[in-house]
Backbone:
């Protein structure tokens, strides 16, 4: 693992102990984020991408969840060994997170100004007046028109795109070095999604922060990420710089995902979509060997008994497949 | 060719309260003068962002909502003035598949009951014959007879959507309205369900009205596409033509906002300013003008009409 990383996660295992059995939501994830880069985490529901993010901030509800293995180090500190008080100082200041649904992450009974200012005062000893002024500055930075008026409004008075801008303002108020964005545009209309992504990329450049972008949308990944991790069933199945991943996907799951997307340029009836057969896997009934084998069109005998390792096939391009 | 469905100047206004006092009233113009036709056997796509009126249009066609004005003809039957017997027939011939496969299936009913309900209501089959027919329908949508006695919670999202499709097909519809049928599904499952829609159309000669916010999906499955903005159709044409030659600035922006699934130089797209407007405060003139990068002096004064600017290509914009 490189030592120039801002964040290093090694062999992370986060399991949920439920009545039906142990759900291994994240089972051996290794990743690193370098200062200023955008790392994309892509996968379908239940692949472990959100649980990975929540584990980094130690926000896994316990019980039923628990981080049972691995290490997470941020800026040289081992996050898993920090006392609760210390991790609380990191959350929202050096590492921030924004979520998919801005309406449920904002408190409906406080104005947006109060909420942005509260976050600032939680971490820094500043006067109410100054926190309020910085909240207005924050709204201006995320390009909300007329911030002096908007700062006194309640979340329900804002549109979805505007609420997501407020969330971003809150997350960036203290100048984090890492922003974790979990499906930040999924609930938004496509024209608003374009605005928010452009805003995020601009702010990242301006503030020189790293972004971990979690999404199910390969298009969003292609447009924003520098490097990409593809996750399946709690594991990383492929890792590459974005261009290599799209030009030359090595794992059959990644190939399947790319082929199953409808393309604008193809005419009707021109191309039948190549669907990945079967279902998104049930984490309680995973096969012993390669977790993707039951849905894989290229699976051979050796895929079943033992799980393949994540191997570096070409410099910087890793895949968990014996055929790669 | 005789169109299967004709929609003429359809309108639906909802009353909304404006202030807290004085009972001030305002109107939400969800659908505001929509006209189009669907030919037998084709797939018409309806695309637009949230609040553009696409789902309301679907509900009006099915008469699940009463219209404020306008007409809908299914074949020769006028839907809004149909009598009870005509309505019974229409309910068979027009079916809908909903977006959310979790809330659109009754959790207390078995798959056999869900899919077979229409057969009973329309007295199409009963007893053993009904079970047999339901089993056939399940096989047609890629499930099996072993699923007959199971309940919705035992299925994944994609499988539930297949159950919803089987339910719609049970009564032998001619027009199937699909309202965001794949947007709640994972990418790998989306492709399976889209392929299923295509296969069923070939097999059964169905006509589709396919509603979605994802232009990629709509473009893929549709013969023709209508783009809606604030309750109106702003552009309507063949789906290939819409992709090659989008005329309305809103269509151009929608097209450019779609993240392409290959990495390209960043920041090359046309990003629209502002939020989608509210259907309560409709701007004067062209309703898109406050967000339009190509607006000129005529746009905030005069409302454009949907005109055929080249064969089969309709657009509502003063630029053409």
Residues:
């Amino acid at each position: 693992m490189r030592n120039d990383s801002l964040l290093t996660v090694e062999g992370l295992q986060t399991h949920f102990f439920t009545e039906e059995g142990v759900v291994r939501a994240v089972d051996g994830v290794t990743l690193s984020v370098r200062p200023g880069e955008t790392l994309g985490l892509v996968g379908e529901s239940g692949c472990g991408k959100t649980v990975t993010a929540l584990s980094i901030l130690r926000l896994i509800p316990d019980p039923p969840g628990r981080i049972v293995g691995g290490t997470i180090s941020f800026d040289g500190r081992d996050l898993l060994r920090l006392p609760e008080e210390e991790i609380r100082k990191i959350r929202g200041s050096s590492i921030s997170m924004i979520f998919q649904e801005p309406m449920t992450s904002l408190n409906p009974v406080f104005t947006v100004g109060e909420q942005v200012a509260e976050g600032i005062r939680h971490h820094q000893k500043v006067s109410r007046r100054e926190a309020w002024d910085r909240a207005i500055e924050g709204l201006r930075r995320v390009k909300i028109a007329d911030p002096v008026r908007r700062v006194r409004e309640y979340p329900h008075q804002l549109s979805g795109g505007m609420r997501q801008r407020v969330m971003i303002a809150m997350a960036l108020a203290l100048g984090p070095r890492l922003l974790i964005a979990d499906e930040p545009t999924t609930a938004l209309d496509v024209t608003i999604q374009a605005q928010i992504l452009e805003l995020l990329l601009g702010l990242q450049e301006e503030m020189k922060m790293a972004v971990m972008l979690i999404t199910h949308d390969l298009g969003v990944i292609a447009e924003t990420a520098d490097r990409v991790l593809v996750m399946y069933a709690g594991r990383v199945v492929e890792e590459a710089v974005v261009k290599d991943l799209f030009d030359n996907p090595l794992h059959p799951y990644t190939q399947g995902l790319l082929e199953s997307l409808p393309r604008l340029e193809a005419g009707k009836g021109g191309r039948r979509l190549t669907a990945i057969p079967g279902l998104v896997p049930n984490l309680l009934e995973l096969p012993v060997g390669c977790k993707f084998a039951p849905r894989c069109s290229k699976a051979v005998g050796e895929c079943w008994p033992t799980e393949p390792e994540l191997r570096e096939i070409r410099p910087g391009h890793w895949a968990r497949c014996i055929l790669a | 060719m005789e169109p299967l469905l004709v929609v003429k100047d359809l309108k639906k206004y909802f009353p909304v309260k404006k202030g807290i006092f004085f009972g001030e009233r305002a109107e939400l113009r969800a659908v505001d003068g929509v006209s189009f036709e669907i030919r037998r056997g084709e797939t018409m796509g309806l695309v637009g962002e949230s609040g553009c009126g696409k789902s309301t249009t679907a509900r009006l066609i099915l008469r699940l909502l009463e219209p404020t004005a306008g007409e809908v003809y299914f074949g020769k039957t006028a839907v809004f003035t149909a009598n009870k017997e005509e309505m019974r027939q229409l309910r068979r011939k027009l079916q809908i598949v909903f977006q959310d496969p979790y809330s659109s299936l009754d959790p207390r009913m078995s798959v056999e009951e869900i899919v077979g309900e229409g057969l009973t209501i329309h007295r199409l089959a009963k007893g053993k014959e009904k079970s047999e027919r339901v089993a056939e329908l399940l096989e047609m949508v890629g499930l099996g007879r072993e699923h007959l006695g199971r309940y919705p919670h035992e299925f994944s999202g994609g499988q539930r959507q297949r159950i919803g499709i089987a339910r719609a097909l049970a009564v032998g519809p001619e027009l199937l309205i699909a309202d965001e049928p794949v947007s709640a599904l994972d990418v790998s499952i989306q492709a399976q369900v889209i392929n299923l829609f295509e296969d069923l159309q070939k097999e059964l000669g169905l006509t589709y009205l396919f509603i979605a916010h994802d232009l990629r999906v709509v473009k893929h499955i549709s013969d023709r596409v209508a783009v809606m903005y604030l309750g109106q159709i702003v552009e309507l044409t063949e789906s290939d033509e819409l992709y090659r030659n989008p005329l309305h600035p809103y269509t151009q922006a929608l097209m450019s906002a779609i993240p392409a699934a290959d990495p390209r130089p960043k920041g090359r797209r046309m990003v629209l300013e502002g939020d989608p407007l509210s259907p309560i405060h409709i701007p004067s003139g062209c309703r898109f003008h406050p967000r339009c990068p190509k607006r000129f002096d005529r746009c905030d004064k005069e409302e454009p009409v949907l005109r055929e600017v080249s064969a089969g290509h309709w657009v509502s914009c003063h630029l053409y």
In short: Chain B has a mean pLDDT of 91.
